[in-house]
Write a structure and sequence with these properties.
The complex is a heterodimer.
Chain A: E1 4-15, E2 18-29, E3 33-37, H1 44-52, E4 59-64, E5 67-68, H2 74-79, E6 82-85, H3 97-107, H4 123-135, H5 151-164, E7 169-173, H6 181-194, E8 199-203, H7 207-213, E9 216-221, E10 224-229, H8 231-236, H9 238-247
Parallel strand pairs in A: 3-8, 3-9, 6-7, 7-8
Antiparallel strand pairs in A: 1-2, 1-4, 4-5, 9-10
Helix pairs in contact in A: 3-4, 3-5
Chain B: H1 3-27, H2 32-56, H3 65-83, H4 98-120, H5 126-144, E1 155-156, H6 171-194, H7 196-206, H8 208-213, H9 218-244, E2 246-247, H10 254-267, H11 274-292, H12 297-310, H13 314-320
Antiparallel strand pairs in B: 1-2
Helix pairs in contact in B: 1-2, 2-6, 2-9, 2-10, 2-11, 3-4, 3-5, 3-9, 4-9, 6-7, 7-9, 10-11, 10-13, 11-13
Classes of the chains: A alpha/beta, B mainly alpha.
């Protein structure tokens, strides 16, 4: 039997009359890069919000490592091993790049009610900061205010911060959005490099990226998962073709 | 000169200036300068404590005067009970001992900050501004209704508090006590904003959604910041009551909160040392302009607008940054 890190069962979420998730079920195997695709407005971001805890499902269950997490608040889900990067980059714009990263490092280090010592000289920050910045190619930008980075660099920083907590499952929400061609190549390399270190659930529009990166793909249409399988299976699935062709 | 060096020079220069001021005042025979600058030191303390909230916690409080007022009233009320030798509520004796009353003023202000902060922090943005304003105005009217302690007319202390080894009635002694507390609070605040706590706090102010995604409960950090700010303002209130030997509900009025906010903006939001400069410039302008006209606000207004429009980092930023 496959080792599932994440299992989503019969998830439902409505916003008024709009059913954003409709009896949604899928599972993610440990170590995989698993992609969620679907036409615009299919409810992919809603799924990520339900997983991360920013939204509460109306019904259904979410298991992370066979543990029910659908009632937990956001920060407890993070402690349970969930990391997330957002569709709209939301780094700390008024902090420097290294402060952003230090914050991510310290977040995993117990409580932060330490009032006297300079945060940047704490042992764990000194040990991990350089490596964490190098991992996402930001070593030469450490003194910059994060708000002054280019769009691609912001995304790099964000992924780097999500990685610092060593999440068991990393939720990546459209990492390629707004990237130039060069950025896409860089980020693809970065994500492939993460394979084996963590499991990734990827929501992405760029089909080239999805089909070249993903081990498994789930297709969501109108909040419902209509197919899950390998890229090859998905490519040849008639229902999926219908959904995408029907849209155009 | 690099920004960091300019900043160090400016702070060291400012420190030296404040240290030497009483001698300079004596030399030039302008003794009133000592009490004017004492006032500046005390307002600076209150403004720095507000800068912690606004500049680092992202907490735009329009009710900071409440804590200044609470600190002042605690000092005055204990003085009154000591003076009349009548225990407070029949059991708690009054006191004129600074070592007792000032910490108490700080604690009571912090306790109120805890209460007000716990409730206010459930909101954010415009609502936060309004709710902090509402709490402060509530306390203002409460003070107006305190008939036992002077109500509308306020309450006089007949002398300053007693402090071991110091003669607070001596303006120069009192000046240095205020300078000491301002320096101490600046040191604590400077360490605080660079600490782990401060880093999380600034993060939470920048993006509360992101701080949540890191698994951190941002509101607790903001609450502690609110309490520390309230405590600093409480100390400023206790000192102010001592300087003027008088407290009145005006200390808690929203115009006082507004003045403190202007000092922070004028000096430079989120710079800690900027608000000291802001308080000095504001009070010196007030002092000078008031000599010519009682409508001095008419002249202060445009100056403020120019600073806010053309120096986003305030006067302190203007002097330390060159873009």
């Amino acid at each position: 039997m496959a080792d599932y890190i994440l299992q989503v069962k019969n998830l439902c979420k409505s916003f008024g009359a709009v059913e954003a998730s409709r009896d949604l079920s899928f599972a993610v195997q440990r170590g995989h890069i698993h992609a969620l695709i679907g036409p615009n407005g299919a409810g992919k971001t809603t799924v990520l919000n339900l997983l991360s805890g920013e939204l509460q499902a109306d019904s259904g269950t979410i298991f992370l490592n066979a543990k029910k997490i659908n009632k937990l608040p956001v920060h407890q889900r993070v402690s349970a091993g969930l990391g997330r990067s957002f569709q709209i980059t939301s780094i700390f714009e008024s902090l420097s790049v290294s402060e952003n990263m230090a914050l991510a490092i310290l977040a995993g280090e117990g409580h932060n009610f330490r009032f006297w010592r300079n945060a940047m000289t704490v042992g764990v920050v000194k040990r991990e900061l350089a490596g964490a910045l190098a991992r996402v190619d930001l070593s030469d930008r450490e003194e910059q205010l994060a708000g002054n980075l280019s769009h691609g660099e912001k995304r790099q920083l964000e992924v780097g911060m999500a990685l610092v907590g060593k999440p068991q499952l990393l939720l990546l929400d459209e990492p390629m959005a707004g990237q130039g061609a060069g950025g896409t190549v860089e980020l693809k390399k970065l994500i492939l490099g993460l394979k084996g270190q963590t499991t990734i659930l990827l929501v992405e529009h760029d089909m080239d990226v999805v089909f070249s990166l993903a081990d498994r793909i789930s297709v969501i249409v109108y909040g419902h998962c209509i197919a899950s399988g390998s890229p090859e299976q998905i490519r040849t699935n008639p229902e999926v073709q219908m959904a995408y062709l029907g849209e155009q | 000169m690099a920004g960091g060096v300019r900043k160090t020079v400016l702070i060291a220069g400012g420190g030296l200036f404040f240290c030497l001021l009483p001698w300079a005042a004596h030399y030039f025979g302008e003794q009133y300068l000592v009490s004017l600058f004492t006032r500046i030191l005390i307002y600076s303390l209150a403004a720095v404590s507000l800068d912690l909230l606004i500049g680092y916690g992202g907490l735009i409080s329009l009710g900071h005067a409440a804590f200044v007022g609470i600190g002042g009233y605690v000092t005055a009320i204990f003085f009154q009970h000591s003076f009349e030798a009548e225990p407070l509520a029949g059991i708690i004796p009054g006191s004129e001992n600074a070592l007792l009353v000032w910490p108490l003023a700080v604690i009571v202000a912090a306790a109120f900050a805890f209460l007000i902060g716990s409730l206010s922090l459930r909101t954010s943005g415009m609502h936060f501004i309004m709710i902090t304003l509402a709490f402060a105005q509530m306390l203002y009217y409460f003070a107006v209704g305190l008939e036992k302690y002077g109500g509308d007319d306020g309450l006089s202390l007949y002398s300053r508090n007693q402090l071991v080894g110091m003669d607070l009635a001596n303006d120069v002694h009192f000046y240095f006590v205020c300078l000491f507390f301002l320096s101490l609070f600046l040191l604590i605040s400077d360490r605080l904003v660079k600490s782990r706590f401060g880093l999380v706090l600034r993060g939470a102010a920048s993006s509360s959604r992101r701080i949540h995604a890191l698994g951190i409960h941002g509101r607790r950090y903001k609450l502690i910041c609110f309490i520390i700010g309230g405590a600093g303002a409480g100390l400023a209130g206790a000192l102010l009551a001592n300087q003027t030997e008088y407290v009145s509900p005006g200390l808690l009025h929203w115009t006082m909160s507004g003045e403190l906010m202007v000092m922070v903006l004028l000096g430079g939001l989120g710079s800690l040392f900027g608000p000291v400069l802001g308080a000095a410039v504001y009070l010196l302008l007030e002092e000078t302009l008031a000599m010519y006209t009682e409508h001095w606000m008419v002249y202060l207004g445009p100056i403020l607008i120019v600073v806010v429009l053309f120096a986003k980092r305030g006067l302190f930023g203007l002097l330390t940054h060159r873009d």
